[in-house]
Amino acid sequence: NFSHLDDAAEPWRVECYARAYILHLLEGVLFPDAGGDIALAMWIPLVANLGDLGRFSWGSAVLAWTYRQLCEACCRQTPSSNMSGCVLLIQMWMWLRLPVGRPK
């Protein structure tokens, strides 16, 4: 349970909570999969050393992941298939580019 951290928490506990929060952001917000019910193990080594997170180009990685998930969603044929990727990024792009239904 990582929803509440005490103000007088030890530094190792703060780092553990930070790792869990970053893992949640990577898996649930930036790089979600189509199922939404599993966490991909490929993100765990990235969170192992928090100092290494700054050397990656996260914007281009999120964009590439979203394009890949859009391509896979177009190729799916089952009734239960759905779109994945950073849907928030797509929604913001549509809000900026498509004036339909947007307040003036």
UniProtKB/TrEMBL annotation:
GO terms for biological process: meristem maintenance. Residues 14-103 form the Aminotransferase-like plant mobile domain. Pfam families: PMD. It comes from the Eukaryota. Coiled coil: none annotated. InterPro entries: AminoTfrase-like_pln_mobile, MAIN-like. PANTHER family: PROTEIN MAIN-LIKE 2, PROTEIN MAINTENANCE OF MERISTEMS-LIKE. This is Aminotransferase-like plant mobile domain-containing protein. It comes from Oryza glaberrima (African rice). The lineage of its organism: Eukaryota, Viridiplantae, Streptophyta, Embryophyta, Tracheophyta.
